[in-house]
Amino acid sequence: GESVGLHLPTLSVQEGDNSIINCAYSNSASDYFIWYKQESGKGPQFIIDIRSNMDKRQGQRVTVLLNKTVKHLSLQIAATQPGDSAVYFCAENRGTYKYIFGTGTRLKVLA
Amino acid sequence: EPEVTQTPSHQVTQMGQEVILHCVPISNHLYFYWYRQILGQKVEFLVSFYNNEISEKSEIFDDQFSVERPDGSNFTLKIRSTKLEDSAMYFCASRATGSSEAFFGQGTRLTVV
Prior knowledge:
The complex is a heterodimer. Chain A contains no helices and 11 strands. By secondary structure, chain A is mostly beta strands. The mean pLDDT of chain A is 89. By secondary structure, chain B is mainly beta. Chain B has strands at 5-7, 10-13, 19-24, 31-37, 44-50, 53-57, 65-68, 75-79, 88-95, 102-104, 108-112. In chain B, a hairpin with a 6-residue loop joins strand 4 and strand 5 (44-50). The interface between A and B is medium-sized, with 23 and 24 residues.
């Protein structure tokens, strides 16, 4: 079967520290993976994606790592800020037409 | 900044009634999606739509669901006979050709009583 899931439901991080959110997937045929951020009462917001032929991709304060050997994806947020508090979903895209979302990790930033 | 717009923000309906959820995707996007999110759970794919037809649908998207693009800007999701378990947040999303980024609307909270 196919599944995209997350190791931890809640992650608490001190403001200014780095955050690492993990995701496991089972389907090797995915074209690329996406991280979404969902703030309370809002729709998911695209953060960053990574193609299946890449190992690492960096954005502004975020880095996504893809380990295809163990089918593992991570999102690293540098210098976590209060505005980073949200639920983070990994999602996989296969082909053109749909995204499969994981169960989500809630990130809490502690002042 | 362009955005996906959904209306209404909250819809309360009686069980067995029909509801239509409205979405205005970003104007130059060609791929459209509906997702739902039951409270506290993950975002679930319902259906994708491209070139005026359904591209793919999930097992959730049964005969009580339908989608339509009635004109050049709107994209609707109809639930024919609502059930209590249809209560959820429904998100519309759109995506441009060649981009991996799907833009989501703010969602419509559907409450079936």
